[in-house]
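Give me structure tokens for this 358-residue protein.
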Amino acid sequence: MSTAREQPIFSTRAHVFQIDPATKRNWIPAGKHALTVSYFYDATRNVYRIISIGGAKAIINSTVTPNMTFTKTSQKFGQWADSRANTVYGLGFASEQHLTQFAEKFQEVKEAARLAREKSQDGGELTSPALGLAAHQVPPSPLVSANGPGDEKLFRSQSADVPGPAERERLKKMLSEGSVGEVQWEAEFFALQDSNNKLAGALREANAAAAQWRQQLEAQRAEAERLRQRVAELEAQAATEQPSASEKEGSQALEQLEALVQTKDQEIQTLKNQTGGPREAVDATEREETQQKVQDLETRNAELEHQLRATERSLEEARAERERARAEVGRAAQLLDVRLFELSELREGLARLAEGTP
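Here you go.
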């Protein structure tokens, strides 16, 4: 790009796309970030170009002609076809206002290019009526930037007195060196602005994460306190139950019942032996009474056996309940350890976040 005779007249930021040369339907992005897109005016040839530089190469280098048309395809996207470059360029803007300003400037430049062509065909003076830039011997004055809305920059020229020949040469040299430098400075400015926005977003995310961690920390503290109280209650309950004394009493009652059952079994066996021997000396009444006693003893024995089984079941249930209480205490203690470990990790994370936050 020959910037020695060109100067930017309008600049904005947009995501640049080119049509896929194979399919002629899909868009190919020129990069991941928005680029600076500028209108340049060549006072020597009286032509206008749209230029966008990405890195060390020109992504867009399109000469505006009267037969070009800029089309708005959506609220933030527009495109135009360049027959000389044999491609279609697309621009995605941050807002509809940016798109409208670029489209209006495109129409102005297109009209200026048409008038310039007509005057060149008529042999008249080469001027740019639409933008008010004349291509006579008076060199353009230095550029002054004016910040517009959003990411845009508008450029305007200031009027100055006509300097001498030596001063004109010096101004031309400064302008040729400043045009390239200004585009680079502008690209660096927007890159720094993007970086600043990313850092601000990261800081907001870090603050939100810190607030969330604080809430989790408070919840974990409350949960740990509840678990401590639960463990204390379970320990107190286990201490008041005195499982050893209960088991001892249950064992003694079981032994007594077993001894009683054995005694009753011996009595039953003795009575059976008595009823089974010679009965010549015993009358029928005594036999019936003896049989009734045997039946009563068998009934009592069955009741004692039933009571023995019930006592055994109660003892087993007491043992199982004690084991469940012990297991619950162990689980509560493990859960308390896990919560305390999570609390320590959250405290360390908050400390690292506080140290890393400027």
